[in-house]
Amino acid sequence: MIWRKTGFVVVVCLLLGWGGFAGAADAVNGGKLYARFCQNCHGSDGAGQIPGAPDFSRGERMLRADTVIVDSIKNGMGMMPAYRGQLTTRELFDLTAYLRTLRR
Ligand code: HEC
After folding, report:
1. pLDDT at res. 23
2. Domain definitions of the chain by residue range
3. Distance 76 CA to ligand 1 centre (A)
4. What's the pTM?
5. Which residue among 80, 93, 98 has the greatest number of ligand 1 atoms within 8 angstroms of its CB, and so is best to mutate?
6. Which H, E and C letters describe the chain, residue by residue?
7. How many Å lie between the centroid of ligand 1 and the Cα of residue 27?
8. CA 24 to ligand 1 centroid distance, Å
9. Labelling 93: which of 12, 18, 32, 99 has CA 20 to 30 A away?
10. Which pLDDT tens digit goes with each residue over 68-96?
């Protein structure tokens, strides 16, 4: 009886896509999004194309938890537009994983 219930819960979780959400962020997908949405200001190497943009290749502003970085991309900052509603939470985590690869 208990196994039947457990099986049901697992199936429901899979249907709701929780399995996918629990997976690691995808930096490759993040790189594609970066080229489309962020590169104009932040540069292909992350060093920054416009005054005031942080230098991700030196790890600037990256010494924080992923959730904090995701929130600041979501809300925008100074010259940077807010991406709330434009990118999904999943995509924001993918982008953050990609930003971490830019550090040289
Ligand atoms: C219009 C230019 C522009 C675009 C497009 C842009 N940014 Fe930014 N971004 C900036 C500037 C300028 C800052 C520094 C803002 C400040 O300190 O006032 C910044 C800051 C940041 C920060 C640091 C925020 C913090 O809390 O210190 C992150 C992370 C970031 N951008 C990621 C991204 C990502 C990811 C994208 C693409 C989805 C993106 N940016 C698109 C200009 C831009």
Report:
1. 77
2. 25-101
3. 7
4. 0.85
5. 80
6. CHHHHHHHHHHHHHHHCHHHHCCCCCHHHHHHHHHHHCHHHHCCCCCCCCCCCCCHHHCCCCCCCHHHHHHHHHHCECCECCCECCECHHHHHHHHHHHHHCCC
7. 18
8. 23
9. 12
10. 999 999 999 999 999 999 999 999 999 99
pLDDT of residue 17: 52
Q: What is the pLDDT of residues 35-72, one digit of tens each?
A: 999 999 999 999 999 999 999 999 999 999 999 999 99
Question: Which residue is it, tokens 């997976």?
Answer: 23
* CATH of range 25-101; options 3.30.70.240, 1.10.760.10, 3.30.10.20, 3.40.50.300: 1.10.760.10
